[in-house]
Write a structure and sequence with these properties.
The complex is a heterodimer. Chain A is of the alpha/beta class. In chain A, about 50% of the residues lie in helices and about 10% in strands. Classes of the chains: A alpha/beta, B alpha/beta. Strand 7 of chain A pairs antiparallel with strand 24 of chain B.
């Protein structure tokens, strides 16, 4: 113990071992990749040691695999290697998913002086993100910018998409990205040899490997979001509607209003789209340029959504559209040579029947205990309707054709009344405080879903509207409404 | 069939002298057992020692050749009791389980065997599930070793050390007539490495030979007066013998310089972490050339006082790295030093946290603190600055606890429970150990307690006289482990009103898909196919129903409703039976692939969501939680909230559809049935339908065009 100066005091850049942490989700193939890396060392004069915690990882949880490599000759003594990554001591982090890259940073495995972070930018949403009533998706940009800042080097691209294209597991692409990064002292041929030697799905894995290799050498580009251009009208009535939009609405609303008009023409007819523009024009009278046309801008979206409420007719209409089978085929990854049969899971209740009947008949039936008792048994079970069979297709087509009579249905009457009340309330509020009016309009977001979900959403909506009436434009009303709405949307 | 196949590992068990064995720590133990002439092996599966049992279960041929008896025991208590064979016969035996929970179950048998003593080496291999990734109560196995006077090995984590620990463990056991516990931490069990193999050794005596020549010795039976003699023997004979053996065989190791005023004592299992911590502090390297003397305790109980005294004399201060609490070793070392009159300072808990895993960072911080206190000139003045943790990042990254797999048949049971809860209000739910325990997390949030394996029903018993019947959940694994007696039998005898739901997926799924009594697979060496319902009826349950397809959410809900509201008295049993999807897919996927390649007509289902009717409220997710049911950005420019989406991992179990029916959710779910290699009938019928539908759609298109934007 003669040397009092610590060896390489705190500076480990001269050390020859390599430590690699792999953060993955259960079932992603993190174990396979770990083995590949361990073997990569084994065949090139290195000793490797890998550790993992199976079990938990298999069941979709996040897990960390760890590999250490150290130059080693057969006659050398056993090296003493660590079993888990240490803060500030990781050379390479491989993250199978974007939030796992974030987790690596939170755990302190990514240090600016040492760590090459190789991560896929795709997202596998956690349950907490999926189960929120509204939008619970975590902010990817926070992770991306932290990674660029904190890693010595950040190699990132959507490895899941690349894997899907190559028809292999994501682990092969990550392995390719690791090779491409050049951070390990092994030639690409060694990586290929490891995949070959394993002898499982060699072709697909090699394809994925090479795609990963290429991907890692492209500059880091964040995910790009392009909005589609606004479509131009194709009919005279369409042009007329567009002319109204330009004449009656503030420019900031144009694009969304075109979407709204298109939706309502598709949903019902030109007259219904004109009703939409009438309502917007009426609302605009209380809005102003000084307020940035915020009320109108918001209403353009939410009014269109509410007016295109999802009733039985609309659902049936969408299910029998010509483009649907192709869309489903694409979504489920059907090959051309495969036949497809599509079955819908529907659960019409007596309520839906009443809703679709003419108003008076619907009202009567809904409030007739005898009829309800007689008919209830027809509505107690869910129905499976095969839209690719003739019977199923014709049933739904018939339902869809009721569109022409939609205005006479009970549901229509009910919805239009709700919409008018909502707009009246917003208009009244606008006089005192524009923010309150905007928040009222935004509450439409609570009204969604079907059956009980719809009922619950509507109940929450009504509660907020009542609260709003009670507050009578007291200061802080807008913030209160926003708070109520956001907590309702966040609750799972 | 276990979750993975171990045929490759089984081959490596045959390696002869000089060959290099490569593999995981726990598999090195299997090979070491055969090299040690073990006569019988058993255990109960659980991470991280499942692989040991899985390999032996597949190595039947080899075990027969060697004359080794392998038993997949029903419980850890059963496994421990099996060690009784070493009390009267010179048979080496080894059993394995997950600790500390398995040791809890086994402790009755362990106490008695430790009291009687053994003449054949008896080794208990425990996979210590402590720290990151653990799924069990955080306690120390050390306490069991102390209370029963069994010796505890905690070898350095590398394969040669582990293999030596197995071989030395048997010798130590025989030299001291005491069962020995070999403790391996979770990452050690799954750590890869290599060692030079030796030939397998046939046992000196096989279990068959032993049974053919029965022996007994009243002095080895735990009854008065022998049991009083046992206690004295432990202290007067076995313990001194152990101290002698440990010293003579040099089981504990020294690293670093011989001299020095400072030193470190460490549990063997933590040695690699300590060495890395020293390396990061600039005081060691990858070969363990520490600047400070280290005493590495590969045997953590008993402590050898002379070794401790020798190490501590001439030292001013010693850092003790002992994971877990209470700090038994620290107490004992202090006692030893005090008795010997040494003034060496011991720094342990205090510099180190009282609870939690001793990761490299934790040890590093203790080493750093120790050096700063006693040798500031050796300490690193300033550590390389790590960027401060980013609070935005911590708030952004979501937690990701484990959950039910895609297509898991247990999930619909909890979907049904959740829906029933909306209808008739919540019940007290007592959960159990197994995959089904994930119900206590989101999205289900069902289950109030978990008190041990197979104890779901028993833990509801105090509440079972209530008007509102409690629900107890148990797996088939737990049911056979001890739920049948301590749960069901107990409930019958005491006229409990508990509703027990046994989730029977055909395997001990949480531990890796091992077979059990009610597994459906026909196995040459095991008697499977026993019925959970029949067993329960045999102990007196009268109200019992078996559901054969758990995905039928409406049926599960109805059955549960009946059980909770039925006027019949006495405990109720629902057996919710569907095969573990992980195991099913492992079997079915290759079969399906082969059929497709052979050109045979095959059908497979996939589920999906129509984005244009999905309103993005995610109630489907809140009653399912299936990993393949996820969300994606809304393709509709008007809508903001993400829509539900079924990804390509979907195995077509059907829960989405059933749940949307049972909960009256929404019309967005569809099932796509894909026919590969369709026959002429499929083609003809499909073509006919498509042609007709296309005609109607074309007509609809022209009508629709009349009201285009």
């Amino acid at each position: 113990m003669g040397a009092h100066a610590p060896r390489e005091a705190g500076v480990l850049s001269a050390r020859n071992r390599i430590s690699i942490a792999i953060l993955a989700l259960g079932g992603q193939g993190g174990g396979v990749l770990t083995q590949w890396i361990a073997r990569l060392g084994g065949q090139t004069g290195y000793r490797s040691q890998a550790t993992s915690i199976p079990g938990v990882a298999q069941r979709t949880g996040a897990t960390i695999y760890y590999v250490e490599l150290i130059p080693w000759g057969l006659s050398d003594p056993e090296p003493i290697l660590a079993l888990s990554p240490a803060v500030g001591d990781v050379d390479v982090v491989l993250a199978f998913e974007l939030m796992e890259a974030g987790r690596a940073m939170i755990r302190g495995f990514v240090s600016p002086d040492r760590t090459t972070l190789i991560g896929s930018t795709h997202r596998v949403y956690a349950l907490s993100e999926k189960s929120a009533r509204g939008n619970g998706i975590a902010n990817s940009d926070a992770v991306l910018s932290a990674a660029r800042q904190r890693a010595r080097r950040f190699v990132a691209f959507d490895m899941s998409a690349v894997a899907e294209q190559a028809g292999c597991a994501i682990s092969a692409v990550v392995f390719g990205a690791l090779a491409g990064s050049g951070v390990l002292p092994f030639p690409v041929a060694d990586y290929i040899e490891v995949i070959r030697a394993e002898g499982k799905s060699v072709d697909a894995n090699l394809e994925g490997f090479h795609a990963g290799l290429t991907g890692s050498r492209k500059p880091d580009r964040g995910p790009s979001r392009q909005s589609a251009p606004v479509p131009a009208p194709t009919t005279d009535s369409g042009w007329a509607l567009q002319a109204r939009i330009v004449a009656e609405l503030p420019p900031s609303s144009y694009n969304m209003a075109v979407e709204g008009v298109r939706r309502l023409v598709d949903y019902q007819d030109y007259a219904y789209a004109n009703l939409y523009l009438d309502r917007l024009a009426h609302l605009r009278t209380v809005d102003s340029e000084r307020a940035g046309w915020k009320l109108t801008d918001e209403a353009v979206r939410y009014l269109a959504l509410w007016m295109a409420y999802d009733d039985t007719i609309r659902v049936a209409d969408l299910k029998v559209r010509e483009t649907r089978v192709q869309r489903v085929r694409k979504e489920v990854g059907a090959h051309d040579h495969q036949l497809i049969g599509i079955t819908e899971f529907m659960h019409p209740r007596l309520r839906e029947l009443c809703d679709t009947l003419p108003r008076a008949a619907g009202e009567w039936l809904l409030h007739s205990p005898l009829a309800a008792r007689l008919l209830q048994r027809f509505f107690s079970k869910g129905r499976c309707i095969e839209t690719t069979s003739l019977a199923g297709f014709l049933t739904l087509s018939l339902l869809a054709s009721l569109r022409r009579w939609r205005r006479s249905t009970l549901r229509y009457a009910h919805q239009q009344r709700l919409i008018e009340n909502w707009l009246d309330l917003a208009r009244a509020a606008a006089a005192a405080d524009m923010e309150t009016a905007v928040e009222i309009i935004r509450c439409q977001r609570l009204i969604k879903g079907y059956g009980e979900t719809y009922d619950n959403g509507l109940t929450t909506f009504n509660q907020i509207m009542d609260a709003c009436r009670e507050m009578k434009d007291a200061p802080g009303t807008a913030a209160k409404i926003r708070g109520l709405r956001e907590s309702a949307l966040a609750s799972a | 069939m276990a979750e993975r196949s171990f045929s490759k590992e089984v081959d490596s068990l045959r390696l002869g002298a000089g060959a290099v064995f490569e593999g995981e720590g726990i598999l090195a133990v299997t090979k070491a057992l055969l090299q040690s002439g073990v006569a019988y092996v058993g255990g109960y599966q659980g991470a991280p020692i499942s692989h040991l049992l899985d390999v032996f279960a597949e190595a039947d041929g080899l075990l027969r050749e060697l004359g080794v008896r392998f038993e997949a025991n029903a419980t850890e208590a059963g496994a421990a009791a099996m060690l009784s064979a070493s009390i009267n016969y010179p048979l080496r035996g080894a059993v394995a389980w997950k600790s500390v929970v398995g040791t809890n179950v086994a402790s009755d048998a362990l106490s008695n065997i430790a009291s009687a003593g053994v003449i054949g080496g008896a080794l208990v291999i425990v996979g210590e599930d402590y720290g990151e990734g653990s799924s069990i109560v955080q306690e120390r196995t050390h306490a069991f070793a102390m209370k029963s006077q069994m010796w505890l090995l905690d070898p350095r984590p590398n394969l040669p050390s582990i293999v030596a620990a197995v071989e030395n463990g048997f010798k130590l056991s025989e030299a001291t007539h005491t069962p020995v516990i070999l403790q391996l931490r979770i990452r050690t069990c799954h750590m890869t490495g290599r060692f030079t193999a030796r030939d397998n050794v046939r046992p000196r005596m096989t279990t068959v030979q032993a049974a053919a020549n029965p022996r007994r010795d009243t002095g080895r039976i735990v009854l008065p007066p022998a049991l009083f003699a046992h206690e004295a023997q432990k202290i007067e004979e076995r313990r001194p013998a152990a101290l002698d053996f440990i010293t003579a065989a040099g089981l504990n190791e020294h690293f670093g310089p011989d001299e020095g005023t400072l030193g470190i004592i460490v549990q063997g299992g933590l040695f690699n972490g300590l060495n890395r911590a020293l390396e990061l502090e600039g005081r060691s390297d990858s070969h363990g050339s520490s600047d400070l003397p280290i005493l590495c305790l590969n045997v953590t109980y008993p402590l050898v006082p002379d070794e401790v005294i020798a190490f501590c004399s001439n030292k001013h201060a010693v850092l003790l790295i002992e994971e877990g609490q209470p700090e038994f070793i620290e107490h004992e070392i202090n006692t030893v030093l005090r008795r010997s009159g040494l003034a060496t300072l011991i720094r342990g808990k205090g510099l180190l946290p009282r609870a939690g895993e001793y990761t490299t960072e934790v040890i590093r911080s203790a080493v750093s603190g120790f050096l700063r206190e006693f040798a500031p000139e050796l300490a690193i003045a300033t550590h390389a600055e790590m960027p401060a943790p980013d609070s935005t990042l911590a708030a952004t990254v979501p937690a990701r606890p484990p959950g039910f797999c895609t297509g898991c048949p247990e999930r619909p049971v909890f979907t049904a429970m959740k829906l029933l809860e909306r209808e008739i209000g919540p019940s007290h739910v007592s959960a159990d150990i197994g995959c089904h325990l994930f119900s206590t997390l989101g999205p289900f949030n069902i289950g109030a307690t978990t008190a041990g394996y197979g104890l779901g029903t028993a833990s509801a018993s105090a509440l079972s006289a209530a008007v509102r019947r409690p629900i107890a959940v148990m797996g088939d694994g737990g049911f056979w482990h001890n739920g049948l007696t301590s749960g069901i039998g107990n409930a019958v005898f005491n006229r409990d009103e508990t509703v027990t739901v046994v989730i029977d997926n055909g395997y001990a799924a949480a531990t890796g898909g091992q077979d059990n009594l009610s597994s459906k697979a026909k196995l040459p060496n095991r008697a499977t196919g026993q019925s959970v319902e029949r067993a329960a009826r045999a102990v007196g349950v009268e109200w019992a129903q078996t559901i054969h397809r758990t995905y039928d959410v409406s049926l599960v809900r109805k059955t549960l409703r009946n059980a909770l509201t039925s006027p019949d008295k006495g405990p109720k049993l629902i057996v919710a039976q569907s095969e573990c999807m992980l195991n099913k897919q492992r079997r079915e996927k290759p079969r399906l692939r082969a059929a497709v390649q052979a050109g045979r007509r095959t059908i497979h289902d996939r589920f999906g969501v129509d984005a244009d009717t999905c309103t993005g409220d995610h109630s489907c997710i809140r009653i399912s939680g299936c990993p393949s049911l996820t969300v994606q950005p809304n393709p509709d420019p008007l809508r903001e909230d993400p829509v539900a989406h079924v990804n390509n991992d979907c195995v077509g179990c059907g829960l989405c559809g059933e749940a949307s029916h049972a909960a009256v959710l929404c019309p967005s779910f569809y099932r796509a049935r894909l026919i590969t290699n369709p026959n002429w009938r499929d083609r003809w019928l499909g073509g006919f339908r498509r042609a007709l539908i296309a005609r109607i759609q074309a007509w609809a298109r022209t009508r629709h065009a009349r009201r285009a934007y």
